Amino acid sequence: MSGSAPLVTVVTPAYNVAPYVGEAVGSVLRQTFTDFEYLVVDDGSTDGTADAVRSRAAGDPRVRLIPAEHSGLSDTRNRGVKEARGTYIAFLDGDDRWHPRFLERQVARIESLPDRVGAVFCRSRLMLENGTYVGVQWQRSGRYDFDDFLIRNNPARNGSSLLVRRSCFEEMGGFRAADEPVEDLAMWLRITGGSRTPVFWGTRGFLADLRLRPGSITRDRSGAYRALRRFLEEQAPMLRRSPPGLAYVHPAAAALKYGDAGDDLAEELAAKARTAGTGRLLRSTMGLRLLFWDSLSRPRRRMLRDAQHNAREAVKTANRRLRGGPR
């Protein structure tokens, strides 16, 4: 490609997201910061995703659609990284979207920070399939290192929230399919653990919208939890400032609360977390949550989960009534 290199390369991995990808592309093209190239890597979609991208991006020379054989998220992102010319790389999933000032604010932030900062990441809003906002993903602003990312179970939360130096990937390699379903966390840990730019920085703005789609959250996630347990067994001993048990607190608390890992695995994770010591667990919100849920018997945990589920369903029904929809 001719011409000077842009400052930023935006990479969208897209697989069968035809109903949403036009909105994702539109949110990139509406950015107030304009010195970017935009690579949409179509991961062998069969639903018209490529046509939706062509329609939305027609006539904009910054956009390049890259067709690929279906190979999964890690390989698709890596294809975009390989083709990137920018100093920085930002990923936007094909069913998410950005605030118009995402690039402007993230670029300004990373360029205001020391050279050891390899990436910045924003806070995110959660939306339903139809775009209705239902919650937020919040994290403190400021500096993060290897321990922070492992103990907080990936505070960047989702791939659409980050702006990363391209040099991080040149130095540490790309995403690894073998790390799925924790490929994001594994990538950020490699950067924070061994690169020349090991610091990540959380920013204050809610600049990314993460879409919750049917099927993206399942009741039984025991396979994902087992993969995470194996990953933590490898990574937890490498914590530098904290006891290994703290790496298990977030997943253990979630597994106990939601019941989507099964009781045996949830309690196994909780036992690992408790090795950090009750005193340390009492000093954090997540640690307190873990201790509470772990103190309940299995029947009482199930009763409380059911009660919470029924309360959520009641709120949904009330909202539908207020909107005049079906009951």
Please outline the helices and strands:
Blueprint: E1 8-14, H1 18-29, E2 36-43, H2 49-57, E3 63-68, H3 73-83, E4 88-91, E5 97-98, H4 102-112, E6 117-127, E7 133-137, E8 142-144, H5 146-151, E9 162-165, H6 166-172, H7 183-194, E10 199-211, H8 222-235, H9 249-258, H10 263-274, H11 278-281, H12 285-295, H13 298-322
Parallel strand pairs: 1-2, 1-4, 2-3, 6-10
Antiparallel strand pairs: 4-9, 5-10, 6-7, 6-9, 8-10
Helix pairs in contact: 1-2, 9-10, 9-12
Q: How would a crystallographer describe the biggest sheet?
A: 10 strands, mixed
> First CA to last CA: what distance?
55 Å
Work out the number of β strands.
Answer: 10
Helix content: 40-55%
Continuous helix count: 13
Task: Compute the CA-based radius of gyration.
Answer: 21 Å
- Topology as H/E string? EHEHEHEEHEEEHEHHEHHHHHH
Helix-strand category:
alpha/beta
Q: Strand portion, in percent?
A: 15-25%
Low-confidence stretches are none
Mean pLDDT: 94
- Gross morphology is globular
Task: Summarize, please.
With 327 residues, the protein is of the alpha/beta class. The chain is built from 13 helices and ten strands. β2, α2 and β3 form a beta-alpha-beta unit.
Q: What does this protein look like?
A:
- This protein is 44% helix and 19% strand.
- It is α/β, with parallel strands linked by helices.
- The longest helix is centred in the last third of the chain and has 25 residues, at 298-322.
- It is globular and about 65 Å long.
